[in-house]
Every structure is written in C-alpha cells, then in structure tokens.
Amino acid sequence: MLQQIMTAPGKIEFQEISIPKLNENEVLVKIMRIGVCGSDIHVYRGEHPYTQYPITQGHEVSGRIEKIGSKVQGFKLNDKVTIQPQVVCGRCYQCTHGNYHICDDLKVMGFQTTGAASEFFAVNSEKLIKLPSEMTYEEGAMIEPCAVGVHAVLKGGDVSDFNVLVLGAGPIGNLISQTAKALGARSVMITDLSNYRLGIAEEVGIDFTINPLKQTLSEEIFKSFGPHKADLIIECVGVNETIETAIDIARKGTDIIVVGVFADNPSINLGYIQDRELRLIGNLMYQTKDYIKAIELIQSKKINLKPLMSTHFP
Questions:
Q1: Closest alpha carbon to 67 in 57, 56, 78
Q2: Beta carbons within 10 angstroms of residue 47's beta carbon
Q3: How many domains does the chain have?
Q4: I want to staple 58 with a disulfide (CB 3.0 to 4.6 A). Which of 3, 30, 96, 117 is the partner?
C-alpha cells in the first residue's frame, strides 16, 4: 500500500509499504477521507512547534473497517469510523484522573507519531468512534475539528444566553462559533482580518462578523452586546496581538479561553489580569465525549460543514 511521508518541510514523498498486520486489539481501517487543516499547513511549512521530521500526517480522518482483531468488540466489518489521534500513556496523573487529553507523554498522530495518510491504517479499537451510516466520509473527517470546538466552548461552562466573542475566523474559530450557537449562546461575534473567512462565517449564520482593520472592535461590541460586553471570549489565532486584544476588551471577571497555538512566546500584562480578575484558560484538543457531541450537532444540522470544505482532492 502507499503511505505519505513528509521527509522535511515542504517535501512530501510516497512509499510502498506492507499492509499492517493486526494485534488482537487493533482494527484495520481503509482510509477514505483525510482533512488538511491549518496545523497540517504549519507542519508543511516547518512552522509547527511540536513536530519533527520525517512524519506521516493525517489526523482528521474517516474510513471503513476492513479487518478486526480477535479481541475487538463493538465494531463490525464496513462500519464507518473516525479516529481519535491522541496517543497517551494511561499511567500519568492526568490519564488516571480523567484528563488523558493532556497526558504527560501525549503524542498526536500526524505530528509526533505516525498519522493515517496511507491506504490502510492499523489502530487500537479504543481510538475508534463509530459514525452514523448516513454520515458522509467528508463529514466524518471533520468530526475532529468539530470536537475541538465542542471542547473549547464547554471550557466556558454553560453558554446558554451568553454573548460570545471569538477572535479568529479560521476553520476552528468558525466551528467554535457555530458550536456556541448550537449550545444556546444568545449571540456570537467573530473577528478576522480576512473578508473571505468572515464571508464564510456569515454563510453559516454567525450573528456579527467584524474586520478590525475596518471597524473599531470595542464600538462594535458595545453596539452588538451592550455595555456588559462579551460573557465569554475565545482566542483562536495564537498571536500576541489577539491575546492582548482579548485582555484589553474583556469585561472584569471574564473567562478567556485560549485555543490558538502560539509559535512565539506572547507578552501580556499580568497586572491587568490580576487587577480585573480575568481568567485565562488553556484548551487542548478533546475527549471522546466531545466527539460524540460533535457527531450529534452535525447530525442535527446545527453545524454546517460544507462551506469549510474549500477544496476536494480525488
């Protein structure tokens, strides 16, 4: 079978390897769709802070079960599945206290360990999540970024009747915004410097789309949310300017969820955070429950994925 391998930034090769043999707890998945997201582009450009080469990518995937190990239960041949790409130790404090997604030895398929960019992929059945039979493989490959959105929004607690501000209208920011609305937010504002991305946000029904180069964000927040501003702020860019913006415009006592991956160390005013009792909350990836919720939201048509699928490759 063919397997993709990135030998160095910007250099992708394909190699012929044997179809993996299964152990008793593994499943062989025929890979049908792989999503290419911003993180993959960062790896391609050599800009991802936690990736070494050579690496086989592929962490947003869907497929069907081709073969099943002797001790695997709950799955059958031809089931549609997606794969949780976290590889965890199962022994550290976080793993034994319900937070395996921040395992002390966390590795992620496609970044620190082999991803699914191959014709077939052998994976422990514990990493599989069954997809509804009516779900397309394209939708199935988008469950992973949707789960990121679910996990991020739920970090802010119950967002029912909240005014939510999302900084960054890339795919993750878009999905976070859609998730916030799906989970009961009163209104959602999203910002970006790209009118193209803001147009997609409008297409999927985000209430307010703001380009800070053309509009004054503080004025737009007052106009749309009123004097009490945003109840929750979610940063989805990962640059110094946006985290500074989040802190500057936050109402006192506000939670700021940090989703963006920072390539450089940001400089922020901790005195301002202390004085205003702001809370910066880190956010990483997801758990199985976030995948299940993402599937539910997509099935119920509360999240619109199609505008986010910019290009299809055969």
A1: 78
A2: 13
A3: 2
A4: 117
Per-residue pLDDT of the chain (314 residues; tens, 9 = 90+): 999 999 999 999 999 999 999 999 999 999 999 999 888 998 999 988 889 999 999 999 999 999 999 999 999 999 999 999 999 999 999 999 999 999 999 999 999 999 999 999 999 999 999 999 999 999 999 999 999 999 999 999 999 999 999 999 999 999 999 999 999 999 999 999 999 999 999 999 999 999 999 999 999 999 999 999 999 999 999 999 999 999 999 999 999 999 998 888 899 999 999 999 999 999 999 999 999 999 999 999 999 999 999 888 87
Check whether residue 124 and residue 160 sit in a common domain. no
Q: How far apart are the first and last CA of the chain?
A: 17
Which tokens in the block code for residue 276?
A: 């205003």
Distance, CA of 271 to CA of 285 (rounded, Å):
29
- What letter represents residue 97's amino acid? H
Predicted TM-score (pTM) above 0.90: yes
Q: What angle do CA 260, 266, 268 make, to 5 degrees?
A: 110
